[in-house]
Amino acid sequence: MKMALRACLRTKPGLTALLSQLSCSGHAAARRAPALVAQRSSSSTSQKIKVDFDQSSGVAVMHMQSPPVNSLSLEFLTDVCIALEKLEMDKSCRGLVVTSSQPKVFSAGLDILDMYGKSPEHCAEFWKAVQEMWLKFYGSNMITIAAVNGSSPAGGCLLSMTCDYRIMADNPRYSIGLNETKLGIVAPFWFKDTMVNTVGHRATEMALQLGLLYSPAEALKIGLVDQLVHEDQVLTTATETMTKWLAIPGILNISYTCHFFHLWCCNLVCTICSCVCQVIAAKKIHLSQDF
Ligand SMILES: CCCC/C=C\CC(=O)SCCNC(=O)CCNC(=O)[C@H](O)C(C)(C)COP(=O)(O)OP(=O)(O)OC[C@H]1O[C@@H](n2cnc3c(N)ncnc32)[C@H](O)[C@@H]1OP(=O)(O)O
What we know:
Homotrimer. Its main location: mitochondrion. The chain is an alpha/beta fold. It has helices spanning 2-11, 13-22, 74-89, 120-138, 155-161, 189-199, 201-210, 216-222, 234-246, 250-290; strands spanning 41-45, 49-54, 59-64, 95-100, 143-148, 152-153, 165-169, 176-177, 227-229. Strand 4, helix 4 (120-138) and strand 5 (143-148) form a beta-alpha-beta unit. The chain is globular. The structure holds ligand LRBWVUCK.
């Protein structure tokens, strides 16, 4: 699925334009962008994101450093999008590892304080930033690996699922999953679709209906993560794994993408049809009650 968006971005200038319109240009441009210096190794830091880029390997590591739990606030999401945009523009950067600088937590998901009691304008901007993060990761031209070195509920799980590969710390105290139902929230359809593309329909159905959070071992079993390693090895394993992925010529990825893009389009059409059917059904019920 991620590959599909990537192919689409490569082949359809229209979508690229659409994505760049959706991109950080509004709120993000107003913020100071961390610069990536063209040298062998460089480091750029915003308040909440630190990016180390090794030019010799073409791999960048994005450290999320927003205490206490890397919750996805508007400010945090904006910094992530700016950093991603910068890396994307640098054609020498081919791989990205995302990890957390916070102990025990990869990301706690959407910042609940940024969603509660805020103006409609703030909520709209916040929600746009969430979608933008998803689009930028899923549509990235880079190979992306999530080094999940702590718990990763809800939006944190979504973030990891937008990556090509997930390595999680093998610590039973950590958990990962889309637990929105437990919070009394319905996960948006694109959260659901991202999970379907990762673990399949049945596992997603169970996970979402019950709002399940999985231990690392359970997550590995259903394919929510791809590999478990000792806590201290998460980042090194991610960079080693990246070498394998980058050894595959990018062109081969593209051929898979066409197939996945087709599936993604079908899925979107089905979702739209199902929404229309629900509206028609609701109207019919309403009319039949009138008579
Ligand atoms: C219409 C919307 C559709 C989309 C819907 C949902 C998507 C989402 O992502 S909603 C967010 C869901 N997130 C969660 O349910 C996670 C809740 N947090 C936790 O489970 C734990 O905090 C976590 C396992 C991440 C870490 O546990 P601990 O290490 O034990 O830390 P604490 O629980 O003590 O938390 C420390 C500190 O962080 C604050 N916190 C935690 N999560 C969030 C969050 N998502 N947003 C904002 N703040 C968060 C927590 O309140 C503590 O604050 P203080 O009490 O001030 O120290």
